[in-house]
Amino acid sequence: MMRYYSTKNKNKPYSLKEAVIMGLPEDNGLFMPEMIPGLSAEFISSLPGKSLVDIAGHIATKWFGHDVPEGVLLQMVMDAFPFDTPLVRLDNQTQVLELFHGPTLAFKDVGARFMARLMSWMVRGSNRKLTILVATSGDTGSAVASGFFGVENINVVILYPSGKVSESQEKQLTTWGGNITALEVSGTFDDCQRLVKEAFLDEQLRHSFDLTSANSINIARLVPQSFYYFRAVAQLDQGTSPCCFVVPSGNFGNLTAGIFAKRMGLPVEKFIAATNSNDVVPAYLLNGVFKARSSVSTISNAMDVGNPSNFWRMMELYHESLESMRKEISGVTVSETETRNAMHECFDRFGYVIDPHGAVGYHSWQMEKRHHPSATGIILETAHPSKFSNVVTETLGLIPEMPERLAAMVTKTKSSVQISADLVALKEYLNAQ
Ligand SMILES: *Cc1c(COP(=O)(O)O)cnc(C)c1O
Q: Tell me, what's the pLDDT at 239?
C-alpha cells in the first residue's frame, strides 16, 4: 500500500483515501507520495502508438493498484478519457500537445475527471456527503464542475474572482445548477485560494462538514496529469531526439506532474516553466529567492497566480536544492506584448491559432530552443483558443471556431452567489446550506 505524507511532516503517514478525501493535511502542508513508482524500460520503449487510455491504465495501476481494484481503475480511465491529447507538429523542433479536447476545453479536464471518478468510488454507498471547495482562476472550476456534475453524495462549491475570468469561462462555472454552486468573490484568485485554505483550517467548518479540495493541491488530480506527458512521447516518430516540455504555468500542478512523469522513467531533457508576469518561480530559478506576491491580471489569466502552492512540492522533489531544480527546469517570463507577438507569429508561420496560455509557452520555446539544438520542444497547449476568443480576436483579427460543447454553455444564464473575500462571508454561506 502506498502511503502519503505532508510536506510539513514526514513522520505521519496517510492512506490514499485520506489524502484524496482530505485534500490538504491538517498542518497546512501538501500531500506527497512516499515514493514515485518506476515504470519498466520495456514500458517506456513500448510507448510508440500507445493510446492515452492504455497509458493511463498502466500508470494508474502502478500508483493506486494496492488501494483500488485494477478492473475499477481501468474502467475509471476509460470513462475519464473518451478524448485524446493529440500532438501537432509545427516544425522539426516544435510540436504542440493539445490538451483541450475534454468537455471544458482545458487540460484541467484530465485531472478533474479522474479525480471525480476516484472520489465517487471512495464514498460510494456511504451516507457521508462531501463538500468540495474549489478556488479557480477560470478553468479548474469548470473542469471540476463538469467532472462532478450529478455525482451522488458530493456537492461542489466553486470560488472564483469576480470580473477576472473571461465571459465564456464564467458561463462554464455558473450555469450548472444541481450539486454545483458558484461563489463570485470580490477579490483575486489568491483571495479565493486563501479562503479555501482558511476554511480547511477552521474548527467549526471542519466539525460541521466533510470538506475536501479539488485544486491542483489534491494528489488525485496531479497524478493523472502525468499521463499525457507519456502520451506525447508515444506520438513522436520513433528515434526522435530527446524532448523538452514547455509548460505554461500558474499554480505549477501541470509542471509538478511532469516531474512525476520524469521520475517514473520518462526521458525528458528539460522542463521549461513558462509564466506571464506572475513569475515568482522563474525569479526563484534566477536568483534563488522565492517571494510570493499579489497576482497581477494578464491576458493569460488562468496563470495569474502570485503564490503557487505546488512550488512546495517542487522543493520537496528537489530536496530544496536550487541547483538540482535548475538542472531540470528553466524559467521564462513572458510579457503581454511578447504573448501577443507569439500568437501572431504562430499563426503567420504555421497557420496555427494558439491561445494566450499556449502562446506564453510558444514564446518561451523560441527563447530557449537554442540551448537545446537537438531536442524537440513540446509546448503544452492548455486551453482551446475559443475559451479566450476576446483576446484571440483582438490580437489576430479572427474569431476562433467554438466547439459545440462550449457554444451550448455560453447561451445559458449565469447564476452565482456574490460574497466578499473573507472567511466570515464564506462561513455564512456554507452554514446556511
Ligand atoms: C490552470 C491553467 C494553467 C496553469 O496550470 P497550473 O497547473 O496551475 O500551473 C495554464 N493554462 C490554462 C489554460 C489553465 O487553465
A: 67
CA of 251 to the centre of ligand 1 (A): 7
Domain-embedded: residue 75: no
What separation in Å is there between the alpha carbon of 404 and the centre of ligand 1?
A: 22
Residue 250 near ligand 1, beta carbon < 6 Å: yes
User: Do residues 96 and 52 share a domain?
Assistant: no
pLDDT value, residue 201: 87
Ligand 1 within 6 A of CB of 298: no
In terms of domains, do 337 and 364 share one? yes
Testing ligand 1's pocket by substitution, the residue of 382, 388, 389, 392 carrying the most ligand atoms inside 8 A of its CB is 382
- Give the span between the Cα atoms of 416 and 422, in whole angstroms: 17
Please give the tally of structural domains in the chain: 2
pTM greater than 0.85 (yes/no): yes
The SS3 of residue 369 is: helix
78-87, 145-154, 386-395: lowest mean pLDDT where?
Answer: 145-154
Write the residue with the smallest CA distance to atom 2 of ligand 1.
Answer: 302
393 and 285: one domain? yes
Give me the pLDDT at residue 86, please: 98
Q: Is the CB of 252 under 6 A from ligand 1?
A: yes
Q: Does residue 383 have its Cβ closer than 6 Å to ligand 1?
A: yes
**In the predicted model, is pLDDT for residue 371 greater than 90?**
yes
Residue 305 CA: nearest ligand 1 atom is 8
How remote is the CA of residue 296 from the centroid of ligand 1, in Å? Answer: 15
56-101 pLDDT, tens digit each: 999 999 999 999 999 999 999 999 999 999 999 999 999 999 999 9
Is residue 381 in a domain? yes
Question: How does 219-236 read in b/e, with b if 16+ C-beta sit within 10 Å?
Answer: bbbbbbbbbbbbbbbbbb
Residues 183 and 209: beta-carbon distance below 8 Å: no
113 and 143 in one domain?
Answer: yes
- Spatial separation of the C-alpha atoms in residues 349 and 426, rounded to whole Å: 48
User: Phi, psi at residue 21, to the nearest 5°?
Assistant: -75, -40
Share of the chain above pLDDT 70, in %: 99
CA of 356 to the centre of ligand 1 (A): 11
Asked if 287 and 143 sit in the same domain, the reply is no
Domain span at 300? 85-106+225-399
Of 157, 124, 163, 120, nearest to 140 by C-alpha is 157
In a domain, 74, yes or no: no
100 and 21 in a common domain: no
- Residue 404 in any domain: the answer is no
Q: Mutation test of ligand 1: which of 249, 299, 304 has the most ligand atoms closer than 8 Å to its C-beta?
A: 249
User: Alpha-carbon distance 314 to 273, whole Å?
Assistant: 12
